[in-house]
Amino acid sequence: MPPSAPVVPQSLEPVDLDRYPVHEPGSRGWDAAVRSARERLAAGGCAVLPGFVRASWLDRLRREGESVAPLAHHETEVVNVYNTDPDPDLPADHPARVPLERGNAFVARDRIPHDQLVHRLYPDPGFRAFLAACVGVPELHELGDPFAGLCLNVVADGRSHPWHFDTNEIAISLLTRAPEAGGTFEYCPDIRSADAENTGDVAAVLAGDGGARIRRLDLCAGDLQLFRGRYSLHRVTEVRGATARHTAIFSYSARPGVVGSAVRTRQLFGRTAQVHRSPRDVRVDGLMD
Q: Do the domain assignments include residue 92?
């Protein structure tokens, strides 16, 4: 008798399993998808899996994001690329002294219903195993953070997400709604390393002298993006039009139980929980942030 087809968990039903057989680890298709993602991450710090969510599920994906977007924490802030407190002792030309306006907003995980597609996908063991293989680590764990493990990033008309670095080494996101115009993802792959901030190069980009270092990417709804956000300076340009840009952000760690700091959590979500009083940080190096 021919071998039976693997059972597809309900959480993976929206995934285009013909192109990305997340449910079949070790299969030819799984190996090919993983190999392609690894090669693109190594070559340019970014791997996009286009059409990761099937076209027939995109309308539901969009509607679910729209239903929780009003719950986003909105607070326009002046920040720097490292999201650190101002330090007047730094040289005047240091990139941490360059003020940037952050106008995007975040919906925390505890405000995203558990039956939504992104909330079902985030903890799925097969999805996590596939992502771990793509980024080249033995295992990925959900964050122990009730707010930051999964969130929805909302960038509305006239708003942008300015140049910044991520806390996680690898950022994983899924575009759930594309804007009418603007909202381009721009990034400078590996502009710094775990051992070197390379502030001169970062300062040049902030001054508008990024040149060929800056790469641009217009994503489509349903595209999954894996990105070396810890070391690659990046931003989302100003969105134009009535349709806000929505992105589900999946945050994992190689260690279990990681929780963000109270300061950073309050900055992003406007509140903290008891668990943030004793955080287990996700940082893997000694960079500024």
A: yes
Pairwise CA distance, residues 25 & 146, whole Å: 29
Q: What angle do CA 240, 205, 46 make, to 5 degrees?
A: 75
Per-residue pLDDT reduced to its tens digit, 228-238 = 999 999 999 99
In a domain, 284, yes or no: no
3-state secondary structure labels for all residues of 95-149: HHHCCEEECCEEECHHHCCCCCHHHHHCCCHHHHHHHHHHHCCCCCEECCCCCCC
> Which of 7-11, 133-137, 274-278 has the highest mean predicted lDDT (pLDDT)?
133-137
Q: How many domains does the chain have?
A: 1
pLDDT at 1: 45
Q: Which residues form the domain of 243?
A: 11-277
CATH of the domain at 71: 2.60.120.620
Predicted TM-score (pTM) of the model is 0.94
Residue 212 buriedness (CB in 10 A; 0-12 / 13-18 / 19+): exposed
Residue 16 phi, psi (nearest 5): -75, 90
State which H helix or E strand residue 58 sits in.
Answer: helix 58-68
Q: Is residue 53 part of a domain?
A: yes
Q: Which neighbouring-strand residues pair with 152?
A: 107, 248
Indicate left, alpha or beta for 55 from its phi (over 0: left) and psi (-120 to 50: alpha).
Answer: alpha
